[in-house]
Amino acid sequence: MNILFITLADIDLSQHGIYSDLVRYFTRQGHEMYIVSPVERRHHKNTSYTTKENIHLLSVKTLNIQKTNVIEKGVGTILLERQFCNAIRRFLSHIKFDIMLYSTPPITLSKVIKYVKRTNKGVITYLLLKDIFPQNAVDLGMLSKEGLLYRYFRKKERDLYMLSDYIGCMSPANKTFLLTHNPYIDAAKVEIAPNSIELHNDMIADRKSILEKYNIPTDKTIFVYGGNLGKPQGIPFLIECLDNNSTRKDCHFIIVGNGTEYGKLDRWYKAASPGNVTLLSRLPKDEYDHLIQACHVGLIFLDYKFTIPNFPSRLLPYLQYKMPIIAATDPNTDVGQIAQTNHFGYACLSNEAEAFSMCIDKMLSSDIKEMGENGYKYLAEHYTVANTYNTIIAHTK
Questions:
Q1: Which pLDDT score is estimated for 378?
Q2: What gap in Å lies between CA 26 and CA 40, rounded to an integer?
Q3: What is the rounded CA–CA span in Å between residue 20 and residue 227?
Q4: Pairing relation of β-strands 48-52 and 32-40?
Q5: Bridge partner residues of 385 (DSSP)
Q6: pTM score, two decimals?
Q7: Which of 9, 174, 184, 195 could cysteine-pair with 169, CB 3.0–4.6 Å?
Q8: Which of 147-156, 157-166, 185-194 comes out lowest in average pLDDT?
Q9: CATH 3.40.50.2000, the chain: domain bounds
Q10: pLDDT tens across 195-229, in order?
């Protein structure tokens, strides 16, 4: 079959990730994958179309829509529909698509979906719901429900749900939220299709040398947070947790990543000079993966103000490398509940720094290796690309 996949992600098929792994799995089943993704203006490249075996990549020149100011991000997101439609019309109009996959963000794809439906009779449209916008922006105080922008994006969101033949949600709480707040959606077309990856065995050989490279102690339990450091992660609470545990001698914390709130964390780090915390800016993917594997416990942070149940994809590499987790989140997401129920982590609310410290205590007194094995088993049973593929492809039978 011919599969059209539209995403904002920069897919590098030589690396592991929720989208690159899924694309590779589709191609191994004999399908032709046509990927449409943006190439932002900061890269100074024009729209291009390349083919390698059964993977076809259409890179569409756009404004900067990630890691940029709010105005350019907003305008760039609005313009995506026209830019993607024009590019598909120009390069892919001769292809008959059987399935159209697309992920949020963005929600502004309704014209693209309508165009593909109109020109590909019988195509199945499938939304991989990774983000519930604009409510997440309201939660973080970035949009007001009384404003014009909110009403515009809310209409786009409704259009997207109505145009989608099927909607794959990341977790049970995610599915419940979607149906509760959008009662017009036919519940029969909503299902669980979580973030998923391909299992692999490329583990590091020398943990000690990796830690020594970054001047990290090799004789302590290492807790690591890796990924985006922005408003969704609730950085002030993360700082409070690190500050509360900065005199501990029984563990070490690594924070590695970047984002809009990195500067806030960096200023605290330089002023406090905590002896048991290492702060690193973004690393190359290979180095990041090696560092994560050298640690013992993965950390997840989500801002307490969220009313939408996020399910961070950074959970997956933690489980892949057999690491239990501590999830400090809002009360609505179910990532912490799933971890605790299946014995691969502990959870607390992200407005209770003392509760986070108690989770550290509990983890240090637990069998970390056994909990890591539990997490890997849960990953293999629920979060592999084979499961996601089978869920999607079942609708073509």
A1: 97
A2: 26
A3: 17
A4: unpaired
A5: none
A6: 0.91
A7: 174
A8: 147-156
A9: 2-193, 207-381
A10: 999 998 767 768 889 999 999 999 999 999 998 99
